[in-house]
Design a protein that fits this description.
Blueprint: H1 3-9, H2 12-38
Transmembrane segments: 14-36
Organism: Streptomyces atrovirens
Keywords: Membrane, Transmembrane, Transmembrane helix
């Protein structure tokens, strides 16, 4: 399967949106993790 076939199956805009969702999702998860790590330990 060549790159051209792959592009026909999933349009470029969908790949860009998927990439953005993955990046934003990981940043959000890292932020939540950071909040829990920085919370005062009792």
């Amino acid at each position: 399967m060549t790159g051209k076939d792959m592009e026909e199956k999933l349009p470029r805009a969908l790949w860009v949106r998927l990439f953005i969702y993955v990046v934003v999702g990981h940043l959000f998860a890292a932020f939540i993790y950071f909040l829990f790590e920085m919370a005062p330990k009792k």
